[in-house]
Amino acid sequence: MKLVTERRDISSPLLRFFAPVASIAVALVCAGFLLLATGVNPLEAYREILYESLGSVYGLSETLVKATPLIFAGLGVSLAFRMQIWNIGAEGQIYMGAMGATWVALFSGLTNHWLLMAGMFAAAMICGGVWAGVAGFLRARWEVNEVIVTLLMNYIAILLVDFLVYGPWRDPQGFNFPLTAQFADAARFANYFDTRLHSGFFLALLCALLLYLFMERTIWGYQIRVIGSNPQAARYAGMRTGKTIFAVLFISGAIAGVAGFSEVAGLQYRLSHGISPGYGYTAIIVAWLARRSAVGVIIVSLLMGVLLVGGDSLQMLWQLPIAFIYAFQGLILFCLLAADFFIVYRLKLVRGTRHG
Amino acid sequence: MVEILLDATIRAGTPILFATLGAILNERAGIINLGIEGLMLIGALAGFAGTFTSGSPLIGVVAAFAAAFVAGGIHALITVQLRGNQIVSGLALTMFGIGITALFGRTMVGETITGLERVAIPGLAQLPVVGRAVFSQDLLIYTSFVLVFALWFFFYRTRVGLALRTVGENPAAADTCGLSVSCYRFFAVTIGAGLVGIGGAYLSLAMTPMWIENMSAGRGWIAVALVIFSGWSSQRALLGAYLFGGITAMQLRFQAVGTDISTHILQMLPYAFTILVLVVSTIRLQKGAGQQPQSLGLPYDREDRK
Fold this sequence. Notes:
The complex is a heterodimer.
Chain A (H helix, E strand, L loop, with lengths): L1 E6 L5 H25 L4 H13 L2 H25 L8 H18 L5 H30 L3 H21 L32 H19 L1 H11 L1 H6 L4 H28 L10 H11 L4 H25 L5 H21 E6 L6
Antiparallel strand pairs in A: 1-2
Chain B lengths: L1 H27 L7 H19 L2 H25 L4 H19 L14 E2 L9 H6 E2 L1 H19 L1 H11 L1 H6 L4 H27 L11 H12 L3 H24 L5 H24 L20
Helix pairs in contact in B: 1-6, 1-9, 1-10, 1-11, 2-3, 2-4, 2-9, 2-10, 3-4, 3-9, 6-7, 6-11, 7-9, 10-11, 10-12, 11-12
């Protein structure tokens, strides 16, 4: 008897739908063993995660709050994915967006609420866009690997924000903490239901809708999809792939930059060291799990929001490091990749030593 | 002064050198590995924990190799056997490595060990300038010198090395010759991962003999970029790694002397420099200097063979 793999004639839609669900389930089981190994009862931990994130109005609102930057960044990353471009730098773009928005809030001299909002929004988009645009330019001009460039730009962005909040932008009344001064009320989002839920969440939903319409209903969206699935055909049809690569990475970074705007205007009201605890990396998983769909990005972001809120409480209850969430996210990706295999192939037991 | 800088350069470059060599072994077989950063952390923690429990840094090094070998096995299983997306699998490995080392490293934070000690080579260690920097180092540094040569010898002077390169260039041809593509790829990935793990162990055993969460600080990504700089050659990897060691040594020197430049700006240097090096080497590559393995990043399925 021999185990061989064989390509399926057709891959059923049912299988496609259940693959991500099954992957998360398997990842939960694997992560459970990790928790056991550190002396934490996984069932208790999972119950705690669900209870904290979905069990109360406050918990639910916190889940939406955590999902907000993930939706923005996830949309940005998934836009680039559409074109087979890897934007691994959403983390840095969030930092740059937060930096741009903070500059407008603190130093532009604007006092009108709507002018401030528009200015912060634009500054965040430009900063995030330029940050990703560097990789876009290098990729379009010399085919420099955008994975490495976008990733290395993360480290530079985080250090740049550190430089500002430890140096020139540090609040003189801040007791030497690495933070800027607080924003005036006019530079803040509105809050809802007496929780931390802020307008950023609704802006994120709007952004998802706009991106969906852009991709499905405009000529530019069509071009992006064509270049993504068949660059040679696109070039033959006269599409300018180089320019599109730059534009897509710029827009991708701009959207991720808005996540930074939403964090400082809706939640922190100031720029500080560690403004994003890795939302940009989680966004990669969001985009990959969402399979290029804007609705998918929202759903997966909410799911990751549950995980992040739950992770916070695990940290408090059992002193688990928050980075544990990364291990879990890595496991989800591994399982998803394995599941992809079984969508296309099936295993078969064959008699004798015949080669499949 | 020159002597001290040279010594610091080699010591700072060695973890990146091991990681780059491991990544070259992966990519020569046609598998991209973006999990280098995670593997370095796994190696660093396993190396530290192994040394801490046994008291012997050598056992720590073996533990680092073994742990990274196993973690690399996940990447190999997914990219080789299951033909999954190599970029996503590598990113997953990096995330997994960051998370799992944070989780299991909790008990190791604040512990101390006696790390790798310098072993002077009699006679040569007294040479001016290079004596201390080259001939009075720890065993892992001597190993890295040998490894650079050994990898070259393996790729260009052995039958298995030739077969491995064929698998990376043209797996269909290798398959037709009766070579097991998946077997070569699997072991190139896992053994390469093990080497990366040793690079990680160098951080926690020699550079700073302790465990710090996320202590690789982007060196894995620098190694990924250096693979392109090296043109997949182990000798050029040595050059690249020491270039970075040199920049780190200078940056530390600046910080120690105390300048007006902010430490945050100084810390950006290695990353900014990596991007610059990546751009220059990509342009060089396009002008025909060296070539990447032809089937890099492409999964192999016999059913697709033409």
